[in-house]
Structures are given as structure tokens and as C-alpha cells.
Amino acid sequence: MASLRTHTCGELRREHAEQTVRLSGWLHRKRDHGNLLFIDLRDHYGITQCVLDSSSPLFKTAEPLRLESVITVGGQVVPRAPAAINPKLPTGEIELAVTELIVQSSADPLPLQVNSDAEFPEETRLRYRFLDLRREKLHRNIVLRSRVIASIRRRMIEAGFTEFQTPILTSSSPEGARDYLVPSRVHPGKFYALPQAPQQFKQLLMTAGFDRYFQIAPCFRDEDGRADRSPGEFYQLDFEMAFVTQEDVFATIEPVLRGVFDEFAGGATVTPAPFPRIPFDEAMTKYGSDKPDLRNPLLIADVTDVFRDSGFAAFATAVSAGAVVRAVPATGASTQPRSFFDKLGQWAREQGAPGLGYVVLGDGGAKGPLAKFLDGDRLGRLVAATGACEGDAVFFVCDKKVSAEKLAGRVRVRLGEELGLIEGNAFRFCWVTDFPMYELNEDTKKIEFSHNPFSMPQGGLEALERADPLTIKAYQYDIVCNGVELSSGAIRNHRPDIMFKAFAIAGYAREDVEARFGGMLNAFRYGAPPHGGSAPGIDRIVMLLAGETNIREVIAFPMNQQAQDLLMGAPGPVPPERLKELHLKLDLPSVDSRKDPRS
User: Fold this and answer.
1) What angle do CA 547, 552, 558 make, to 5 degrees?
2) Dist CA 357 CA 96 (whole Å)
3) In sequence order, what are the residues at sequence separation of 6 or more whose Cβ sits closer than 8 angstroms to the Cβ of residue 257?
4) Which three-class secondary structure string do you get for 239-278?
5) Which of 501, 490, 503, 493 is nearest to 528 (CA)?
6) Which of 32, 97, 194, 370 is 20 to 30 Å apart from 154, CA to CA?
7) What is the DSSP string of 70-82?
8) What is the distance between the alpha carbons of residues 143 and 153, in angstroms, rounded to a whole number?
9) Which pTM value belongs to this model?
10) pLDDT in tens, 507-534
């Protein structure tokens, strides 16, 4: 058989004129001008316009073809007339005069249009993902993903890292989400777990003497989907380094991330190294989030003392009972109409707050619902604390510390967006550091790990033995870009004595730790180097670079938010004989309880 193509559909230019060529691809568009039939032929590389005269015996073959049929065409490359040149296409100066046409595959009527950016229901897009992937934007996103991964791999190797693969079938690990479990056929009643992350294996590689490890690692977590989180599985740049401090990790990975973003940012500005370091407590106070978006210039201030023993009884009483007051300045908001403030108050009530108090600063002092409670001294302290000036407004949140921080953070984001203050065309990175080692579960009142259980506590064994666990910080850190957490990382706990104590505080008996992490503990008993690393999310990196807000737009075959693969029909039932082979019997929930995916 002759070659199905001599060129791609994005390759031909004016210098190919008069050449006889052959192209293969999908019928992207078809325009019947009576005596002439124009076909836009598309492949992975681009589009070429093909033309058939009505006198051609091929005309009757081409005319009834539906869009997305696959054809091979041959003919002569012809320059377009000046008036017919399409500057939007790289191939827009030529067309192919068709003298040969072979139908490779006819298409049925389409459930979604490939040659259009029209919106279609997500169910339709996922069920026919192979068609959705032919659409220009999504196709471009998936190619971008491949290029980003290739760039990351190249940069990591250049930085001295060695790529490894770690097991997919492994043991369960407390990573903060549910495991996907795989029943063992040859070991009845026992299960493998799909890795939430290659955490233990990469630490074992450091203990085995490999200095710098990385992989583009698949990770599996049975958790609910969100716009920035794919249910089921995701990929991360997993890396680990031996004989390093926290700053060593930062200095090594920052050039990789900055380099990738510089390469694919399309001219957007990228934070230069070193990236800002923001301690967790400061992040919660100033930004109301451990994922601060530094494109937003607004900073939250603690103004609890301004309202302590003030005339505003609602705040003063709450403060005396242990609440805090957070102030969010709104640059230039004094020019906004009253409806702007009313809508923000209504929005705050929808967030569960009683409202949103505020003052507006003008040349005559302060105006607004709370202005009468701020005498000259209190107003001066408010201005000093917030940095607000004439023409600004200041909004207030009063609640228990954690709740106040979170709501103030949402107010900051809302104000930044409503007032158009978010810096455009920029990627702003920061490290959030010094996370709490432990947190108190409000439901069970038990102490739990707040982040990664394998992290080294600041102060080591002495801190674990003598300090209040809720005051202990860990060598844990997150890398954040534009308010999106790209990764969590840590300097690891490489000493068995410190690990046993750390897990004991979180309620794990020594024998439980031995049973669950015996392989890693045993390795640590034979000499383990200090080590640390991180794992930036590939999906989120590509999502940012593609300018998307939904992570499914950068994954070739994503699940829906209910963790279903509509294309392949997963999850699905299995025959009874397979269950018997695996020594399993089903105990299905009632119809009512199935409505709750966590039941």
C-alpha cells in the first residue's frame, strides 16, 4: 500500500506549490459552493483546505461524507489567490486540488461538535471523551501537559536527580485520605492498597543510599472531586533528597518550577527566586489561608485590641470571651455605591456570618455602621494596623480565631475580585512554612497529625517530650502559586525513637507503628540520612499554565465528580465467580444510604 500521507495537515506552505502530496485526517468542515466543494482536513498538526470541482468523479464520494469521517486525499498543492488567503491558518496560503480520495472510516452523526467551542454537558463530554479530545482547546491542553512533563523531567535530570519507579500495589498508609484497596487472591482476607503517594518508598531510597530521587508518580486517593482536585488518581512530581535542610530543598526545586513556568507562561511574569517564605501562622493572620494568592495586594490585620472594651457591644463581648477581630482593607472602595456594601453583607450571611461590619475612610474621618464606635484613638490604631487611607473601606470579621481567619480570607478574595485588584498575567509563588505538627479534632477531641505524619518536628525528641503538642511546629512546607497549593513537603523524621514518640502523641501504639511502617523503621535502624522532599502536582501545574479553572480540562481521561469513568463504565460490577476467586461477599448498603458517597 502507498503511504497514507506524505505530509501532515499543518505542514504545507507556499514553497510546496505544484508538488503532488497525500494527506490523511478527519473531515473538520465542509462547504459546498455549488461548483466547488471545500473540505478542511484536520490532523494532530493542523488544518489544510482541500478543494474538489463538481466535475470530478470524486465529488459524489465526498459530498455525503459526515464531519469527522477519516479520509486520505491526494493531489497538487495550489497557491491561493490573494483574496482567498487565510492568515489565521499556517497553511492559509495554499490549498490542495484533490485528484484522489479514499474513505478510511465513515463517521456517525456526532453527539458533540468537534469544530466548535460550543458548550456541552460534562456528562456528554466525558462519555465521548475521544471526540472531546479532538477539539482544539482540549487537544492543546493535553499536548501542553506532555510538554510540561518532558520539561520537568529534563530539568530534574539536569539538577542531578535519578528517576525511579516505585510499587503500585503496596500497603495502606495514613496520608489523610481513604485508600483504594485491592483484594489478594492468594492471601484470602488481605488487601493491597494503591499508593496515596510513594512516601515510604522514596524515603527508603534515601536510606538505600540514592542521593536524589524523582518520578512522575501516579497517586490514588478515594476522595471527593473538586474543581482543582481529580477524584481517584492524580500525578505529581515526586522527589526526595538526602543530607538536606529545608532551605536546600527550596533552593533546588525553585529553579525547576520557575524554569517550567517561564517556558510555558506565554509572557506572564513569574516570581523570581528565592520565593517568599511565609510561616503558617502569618499566612492565616495576613491572608486568611494557608494557600495565599499573592496577586491580591490586600492584607488582613488583627484589630482585636481596637475593639476590646469598645462601645460596640457585639465585638467587645465576643472579644472578652476569647474571640478575635480581623480587618480587611478595601482599596478605593469608598467610591462604590451602597449596593456594593449591602451585597457583601448578604454574601457574608450566606457564608454563615451575621453580616459584615465596615467603615469608610474619608476626609472627615470614618463613616459607616461601625464608625460611631471608633473614637479618634481607636480610629488611629485601626488605620495604623491596616494601612488603610482616605478613600478606602475597612471590613470586619469577629469570631473564634480559626473561624475568623477563614472568613476574613474569603472576604479578602472576594474584595480583590470585586474591586479588580488581582494582578493579571502573573504567576506568584510562595512557600508556606512551619505548619503545626498536630491539630485537635473538634469532633473526637483527640490530637491528630495536621499534615504529613513522617515529618521531623522542630525541636526533635525534646519538643515531643516536653512541649504542648499543639504548639509544636514541623519542618513542613507547601509550595503555592496564585492561591493554588501545588505540593506539600517536609524534612522527614529519620529516627525511630522520634517516630515512635510522634505517633504515640497521635494515638498510635508502638506495635501499630511497627505493623504499619515496619519496613521503613527497620531501614532507619541501620543508618538513615537526614532527608526531605516534596511533590508538586502535575495536574495543577498544567491547569495554571493552561489558564483553566477545572482540573478535568488538563487530564485526557478524567473521572467525573462522582469518581465515575463514563467512557469505560468504571466502576462496574464483576461476575460472581471473580468475587469467589477473591474470597469476597458483597454486603451492599440500603438504597437510602447509597445517596451518601461516604456511607
Assistant:
1) 155
2) 68
3) 429, 479, 486, 536, 541
4) EEEECCCHHHHHHHHHHHHHHHHHHHCCCCEECCCCCCEE
5) 493
6) 194
7) EEEEEEEEEEPPG
8) 16
9) 0.92
10) 999 999 998 888 889 999 999 999 999 9
